[in-house]
Amino acid sequence: MSALAALLPLSALANKADDTVRIAFAKELDNADIYFSSARESTIFGYAVFDSLVEHDPETGEWVGNLAESFEWVDDLTLEFTLRQGITFHNGEAFDADDVVFTFNHFADPATGVAMPNTVGWIKSAEKLDQYTVRVHLKEPFPAALAYVDSAMPIYPDQYYQEVGSQGFAQKPVGTGPYQLESITPGTGFTLTAFADYHAEGPRQKAQIGTVEVRSIPDVNTQIAELFSGSIDFLWQVPEEQAQKIAEQGRFTVTQAPTMRFGYVSLDASGRTGEDVPTTDIRVRKAINHAIDRKAIRDAFFSESSEIINSICNPLQFGCEQDVTAYEYDPEKARKLLAEAGYADGFEIELYAYRDRPAAEAIAQMLAEVGITARLNVLQYAALAEKVLKQEVPTAFMTWGSGSVADVSASTSKFFDGSEIDYARNPDLTALLKAGDTTTDDAARKESYSKALKLIADEAYWVPLWTYTANYVMSPELDFTPTPDEFVRFFDMRWK
Fold it and tell me: Where in this chain does the record put each Solute-binding protein family domain (predicted)?
């Protein structure tokens, strides 16, 4: 036995012996019928149990067929998929065009009420041409469609789903993926086993580990304690400070990877929360931008690998122009701008947040240093999202992961679309983003997004902050390489 192995508890080595990898999630699986969940945990579960028609290769950036053998744009409003033959669902039901047509039409129907309507809202209808050919008709040109077909649209078995309904399906989901559900215990976790008959004809491989046990452990310190006791093999989203301490001990593999998530401070530029809110004045918005030392906060609470950004998007996303007006940290300039706006003595404002309290407190402190009293309110995400929708949030420190879709249509376009969550309400800006979302020429898309992002920066509508990284801690017996989309692909795990 090696010196490293001798340091590990015997139970940690046993996981390899019984071919079971044990994983901790901070949140429980809120719905196994993943069309009715927006949580990352449900997406990861879905990636293991279900397949989609196409898949994004995180290394090459190309779209490759999964359940679809091939695909093509017939025209700007029509996608055609030729399906693989001989594939079966976990319950033995044969996969064909009926499953695809049912899945697309059922979940694109507004009456179904999916958790994230934007993921299916571009679909007009799906049409069966023959047993293994499907055409999807779009409401309008939407060049990012394949990104949503991948991460947001797993294919369900039409016969089984219609027999058991959403509630029954959530209790016992059936897919074509590399893993099948063995058991699920609400509030506790779930167990998956390798699907022996997985087709593996597309970009995915057969599961390399026989069993995956996922437990819900909300407290990170409890997660780490179980890691050291050998009860857990894999941790995800470990805070930077704890990850560094674990790495220093040398007992476990600690890996850091970039993600699609970025942070920002939203500002009410159009008076949605009241006509007298100070942030309707561009000088106040610019002052807030100058008042926040983004690098200092990043260095204090996050990884140095996190990238300071100038635009409201992630640089990994298509169309994310960063060559825009940037606001350097300059508290003196911030005070001058506030005085010019009539706030030489400062003002009070509500600042909301739902995570990263130390960073939120630092932002509030920096605003206080230029005369702005930001009363910090830390809420649960769902509660804050509801207040944003009700237009009750003048400023907020928040983050956005874009559903791991590598396209500006999944980030900037969602916040400045003229809807209830758009606190800028600039028709010219909305039109530029709409053009980028619906133009099929890549160069034209980039140009539209570039103009939009420069307009956002010039008007200082928001404060772009930094990108996020994710820390993964795992047993030295486990081999796994994370990807920027933050999807923990269980089928890519293997024992060394």
Answer: 63-419
